[in-house]
Amino acid sequence: MVEVSTSILSVKSGEESKTFFALETAKTDYFHIDVMDGKFVEKDTYQKMFQNASYIKRISNLPLDVHLMVENVKEAIDDFLAVEPNMITFHLEACQNKEEVYQLIQYIKDNHCRVGIAIKPNTNVEEVYEFLPYIHMCLIMTVEPGKGGQTFLTDMVQKIETLNQYKEEQKLEIDIEVDGGINLKTAPKVKKAGANVLVAGTAIVMAKDFKVIIDELKE
Q: 37-42: long-range contacts at Cβ-Cβ below 8 A with a sequence spacing of 24 or more?
């Protein structure tokens, strides 16, 4: 079963309330919260995403899927635990060493939250293998993190296939999430490769009917 996590990055200012209610009605599975610090990536969405996540928590029971694109992962985890997310995903590239990765995994779990690890397009998928038995999800970035509306990198399909093959060989129960340039054209490719959680922002939020797009992405 494929799930859809709608990125709220491109929601128009002043239309948040209307958009969030419409997304819930359209049956998105998660609200995807793109947290950027202006250091790990160019863009800074930190305060805006915290405000939006806090607001969603008040008006909706849908789970929050928090994607941290930040240098100071521990600090961001502490901040966003306040909105009781279902999932916190941090970047492998933001960690200094393996010990830090394991510490962050355990810290998120100790705070009753599911944990994911994200990898950028240039990071080899094999680098995340040893952590997979301890996490709930691996997020494959199919664009460079930090900007909305980018074009899907087609060579990432092979990376998803490789990860999915390893997951099946090792009998791992993890979700494979993809984020970046996901729309009705690219979704079939990543689903066929083994992704089961699709992050889409622009493709959904800019559509006239959210439900039509979400339903088609899930098919």
A: 37/69, 37/70, 37/71, 37/72, 37/76, 39/70, 39/71, 40/69, 40/70, 40/71, 40/91, 40/93, 40/94, 40/145, 40/146, 41/69, 41/145, 41/146, 41/147, 42/146, 42/147
User: Which one from 29, 34, 65, 79 is the annotated catalytic residue?
Assistant: 34
User: Domain segments of the chain: what residues?
Assistant: 3-218
CA distance 126 to 75: 27
Judge if pTM exceeds 0.85: yes
37 is catalytic: no
The first and second tokens of residue 119, run together, are 């990898």
Q: Rounded to whole angstroms, how far apart are CA atoms 203 and 213?
A: 8
Superfamily of domain 3-218: Aldolase class I (3.20.20.70)
Encode pLDDT of 18-38 as tens digits: 999 999 999 999 999 999 999
Residue 209 annotated in active site: no
* Residues 116-127 pLDDT 10s: 999 999 999 999
